[in-house]
Amino acid sequence: MWSSRLFWKLVLVYGGFNFVLAATFPLALSKWEESQVIDQVRGGLRDIALLVRGQVAPAIAAGDSSQLVRLVNDASQLTDVRVTIIAADGDVLAESDTDVESMRNHRDREELAEARKSGGGDAIRRSSTLGVPFLYYAIPLKIDEGIVAFVRVAEDVKTIEDQARDRQRSLWWFAVAVALLAAPLTYVLAGRITRPLSELTANAQAIADGDYRQPITSRSRDEVGTLASAFSKMRDELARRVAELEDHNQRLSTVLSSMVEGVLAVDCDRRVMLANQTCCEMLEIGEADVAGRALLEVTRSVEIDEAVSAAMASDAPAQREVTLTSPSQRVLQLLAAQLPAEPRPGAVIVFHDVTELRRLENMRRDFAANVSHELKTPLTSIKAYAETLRLGAVNDRENNLAFVDRISEQSEHLDLLITDLLQLARVESGQEAFQFARVDLAVAAEQALTQCRQLAEQKRIRLHCDPANETVVAWADYEGLFTIITNLLVNAINYTPPEGDVTFRWRQVEQTAVIEIQDSGIGIAPEHHERVFERFFRVDKARSRAAGGTGLGLAIVKHLAQAFGGSVELESEPGRGSTFRVRLPTDERDPAKHLTSAAVPRDNDAENKDPHR
Ligand code: ADP
Description:
The protein is α+β, with helices and mostly antiparallel strands. It has helices at about 5-60, 65-80, 110-120, 155-210, 225-255, 275-285, 295-300, 300-315, 355-390, 400-430, 440-460, 480-495, 540-545, 555-565, 590-595; strands at about 80-85, 90-95, 120-125, 135-145, 145-155, 260-265, 270-275, 320-325, 330-340, 345-355, 435-440, 460-465, 475, 500-510, 510-520, 565-575, 575-585.
């Protein structure tokens, strides 16, 4: 209440009004009060004059001046007023307050003239005899219907003024008392008026701040009470509608946030009204700072902007596929449609992220092209040699066997290619039925080294084995692990010049079996480190072919290692050799993963786009 401006306004207005009223009351009454006093004094003077007239009449009739003087003095003493007896011609016969001799003729005195006319006259003026102001009252004294003298009584004006001032002082005290009494009343009254209004104001403030629980109660039976009850109903209705809206919004945002499609709504000025989380993720923008920004600024795509323009210009939705390049490359399919309502409030855009779909399509297309090319090369050779033989070379005793050998070589290469392709396809699709077991690396190494020894000898490569001091086992499928080791060993032998070294070692590091195949060969430039694991990628195509490579060896290694819950990495420098490191778990960590999903790892094999490389 103390902070209520209205309260203080009322206090000031009522207080000021009371004060003015209290001040006006004695001011207005003071003149009237003064005239009242004068009237009273005049009335008193008349009574005294009548009394004195009765007493002095015999002395005047008898012409007894000493008796007259004595009576005048007695009357004056008794009534405490000035008494003067004046003859009809104006000569002063007797006077109570001064010497008669010193007094001039009073014929022209105002009160006498009036008394002569109307039987009683009064005047207020300064006494020429005493020099002070007096209120005079005079009445005629008649004998036989003729005026013989006048009895005049006078009261000192100062005495009258004193009386009037006394009365006014009382009035002022009364006004002060009234004002003092009115002050607390004003305070209480202002409080009673403002309290319910202050409560209503606080309620309204709470509602404005979103708090609809505060009860609105008012005991007033007046308009304020009616206002409070109307306000209460309004609050309840508002709370109900806000709750409904919040519920609706909640459901809408739950639906929007759980959608796999991105949803973005813009107003007719193409400013973003809302964007769900998926949309923000697709456009790689922060969800918080989207609302209110221009569509073009948010999407950074002229195509999206154009799609919205097209949708807004017609009733039919606009469909597009856009490729965003920044910050990362994404392919989005979008459908833009106008929001229903009149006038059109804007448009909504629904995005589908088809990046992965397009990537897989590209991958499939590239893979098909690569496979066709890889199959076509040996087939073309076989066809050419067979044709050469058919056209007569079969009778060429010196060369016909060489042609048959070429056909056999190319057929073997074809067979190898198809075998590798099938194995890769099985590993990738998860159809390969692995038999997981604890495989002793020493056993697998022994078998692989035995198999590769002949090739190493042919190529004059020194094959070393650096086994671990303790037994190291890997949780893997034996055949798969054998393929990993032989693929890496064959590569190491093939890509190392004669008199080079290939070392096969294995260790256990914590819960991981680490296999390393190190060679002193040609090495691989850093820019190819990632790509050598792609299907059909070869650093040097001719060299790979000469060595009988299919371009699938490392892809099979990578997919097998991943299918076993492990990984493969490469350290290499051109001219200094390469080290392929395979990490495999030593125990069964997640059997489910080993049997199914790990067999279908994602990679960027399809990036090998040039089938003619
Ligand atoms: P390929 O059948 O051609 O050997 P891979 O998938 O096994 O196919 O290997 C892919 C390419 O990686 C090879 O063509 C070769 O260029 C390179 N490469 C693989 N292993 C080595 C290695 N030990 N030293 C140098 N280059 C290698």
